[in-house]
Amino acid sequence: MNSPLSYLLSSKKKRRAIVLPIGLLLVLLLALALVGKGTAKPKLGLLEVQGVIMDSKNLLAKIKELEQDPEVLGVLLRVNSPGGVVAPSQEIYEAVKRLGSKKPVYASLGAVAASGGYYVSLGAKKIYASPGSLTGSIGVILQSLNASELLEKIGLKMEVIKSGAHKDEGSPFRAMEPEERKLLETVIMDTHEQFVAVVASNRPINQEKLAKIADGRIFTGRQAQALGLIDEVGGIEEAISALKATLDLKGEVELVEPHDLEQNFLSNLKLESWTRLATKLQFGGLMFMDSRLVNP
Question: Which residue numbers delimit the Peptidase S49 domain (predicted)?
């Protein structure tokens, strides 16, 4: 029979046998964490604006994620878009601008960054574009389809009951009246002035020069740089290098992409945006978009 003393000694040995390995494991894990932290690459956020801008929800969530991540030191905004709907383009621009007040944001223009695509880029601290990038297209467009003659040929006529004379402005079922055209032109010009004001507040271009080029024309990256619409001619690597220099970062960096919001089946097939675009064009959506640069 064991004595109480021998029992206590035996229990202590057992506890040491359990505690020592656990302690060594914790020390090892801590050492690995410290080594990993010391060798981790600095992180830059990568925010991509791709295709026609129809909605801002997903991009706004991504911008917020990059803004709140303390490990993301700066953000590269990569734009490859012919533009899109006015209000979402404005919301994205404002969000990029707010992000830039927290950490540096540099824009890199891809093959196309025109109209609304250029608009969102204006929120960045500096804009880079390749020599052959297509950008500019400062302007607004409102399109309305007139199918009245076709409907007449097949014997169809739309009957409209409306609360006011202008409730069906831009209807595809009849020709546009001169008064309606004038009213819609005031909407277009007001929105155009908003676009021009954003360019003027972010780019070193005098008002007279800006008024001449803000007529919807497109420019190559090289032309845009000469006009002051962008800062430097260069690709995505040059933009990353400049952003690193601003942050005084040496060596390689890790590009971190924020998470996408949950997408449905149509979104995954990229059909939802095209469906909404077709609807906007059919019913006269107000667009910061260059339809000449839209690829199916």
Answer: 100-249
Condensed to tens digits (0 to 9), the pLDDT of residues 110-158 reads 999 999 999 999 999 999 999 999 999 999 998 888 999 999 999 999 8
For helices 86-100 and 57-68, the axis angle rounded to 10 degrees is: 0
CATH 3.90.226.10 matches 42-261+270-293: yes
| C-alpha distance from residue 62 to each of 43, 45, 112, 168, 194 (Å) | 15, 10, 21, 37, 25
Task: Quickly count: other Cβ atoms within 10 Å of residue 92's Cβ.
Answer: 28
Q: Write the CA distances from 100 to 80, 125, 200, 221, integer angstroms.
A: 20, 7, 18, 23
Which residues, at least 6 apart from 278, have a Cβ–Cβ distance to it below 8 Å?
none
- Mean pLDDT value across the chain: 85
What CA–CA distance (Å, rounded) separates 214 from 140?
A: 10
Q: Which of 108, 115, 130, 171 is catalytic?
A: 115
Catalytic site residue from 167, 209, 212, 270:
167
| Main-chain phi, psi angles of 216, to 5 degrees | 95, -5
**Domain locations along the chain:** 42-261+270-293
Q: Please state, in angstroms and rounded to a whole number, the distance separating the CA atoms of residues 228 and 21.
A: 65
115: annotated active-site residue: yes
CA 26 to chain centroid, in Å, comes to 43
Rounded CA separation 100/120 (Å): 12
Q: What region does 84 belong to: left with phi over 0, alpha with psi -120 to 50, or beta?
A: left
Q: Distance between CA 224 and CA 211 in Å, rounded?
A: 15
Is position 133 annotated as part of the catalytic site?
no
